[in-house]
Amino acid sequence: xxxxxxxxxxxxxxxxxxxxxxxxxxxxxxxxxxxxxxxxxxxxxxxxxxxxxxxxxxxxxxxxxxxxxxxxxxxxxxxxxxxxxxxxxxxxxxxxxxxxxxxxxxxxxxxxxxxxxxxxxxxxxxxxxxxxxxxxxxxxxxxxxxxxxxxxxxxxxxxxxxxxxxxxxxx
Length: 171
Known about the structure:
The protein is mainly alpha-helical. It has 7 helices and no strands. The protein has one domain (6-170). The longest helix has 26 residues, at 40-65.
């Protein structure tokens, strides 16, 4: 688990959430710039590579730094592979970034609730889903963005994978 004090972890999580909201107006101009220099297929390959790298590094770190259990390892592989294959169902490459972004958020929020509640998974998942829904609501009102219910579900599923990783690592 993350080795920060609870206050430090709160600060990191708040800064992370604020950075998600602060970058909302910048995403479309950034993507326009990227698509001006890369083809959609190339960006898709890059996003897939980043997602796979994140998955493999996470599995390695979680297995290496936690109690080495074959069952725990198998569950981590199942969670990550399910998340990866779900991410591959999205045709737009930048939508796959949600799985990195909200997976990490789910893990951070789970770490906040761990040792503070009996079932930390429930409030962690609820908070991630709320933040993801709020993200899409803000996008609905931005002229260069589109709020989408499908993205709310994607954010929640990605958050669920982060919460699952936190839960598997600590138990």
